[in-house]
Write a structure and sequence with these properties.
- By secondary structure, the protein is of the alpha+beta class.
- The protein has helices at about 5, 10-20, 35-40, 75-85, and strands at about 50, 65-70.
- A two-stranded antiparallel sheet has the order 1-2.
- The chain is globular.
């Protein structure tokens, strides 16, 4: 079995961590700008981080699919748009 096939996906990883009683940060999985707007309208606190969920890229930082330190809605939307084009 190759390494990529053996890697857990994001949701599976979070579930595994939480099954051991380890707290994870507040998070939302979104597929589009509408869902992103809903998630960032009070549910999540700034600063935020965005991370693409894709099985194609195990090294997301190298492909610029992780952005941290986002402090405004405008920064979040800009980062989401850039990330969507890269993914």
């Amino acid at each position: 079995m190759d390494e990529a096939a053996a890697a857990l996906g994001y949701r599976e990883s979070v579930s595994l961590v939480e099954s051991f009683g380890i707290e994870t940060p507040n998070q939302a999985i979104v597929a589009d700008r509408e869902q992103l707007n809903a998630a960032t309208s009070g549910r999540l606190e700034y600063p935020l981080a965005l991370k693409a969920i894709t099985r194609d890229a195990t090294h997301k930082t190298e492909r610029q699919l992780v952005v941290t330190g986002l402090r405004t809605q405008e920064e979040v939307l800009d980062a989401f748009d850039r990330m969507t084009r890269r993914a």
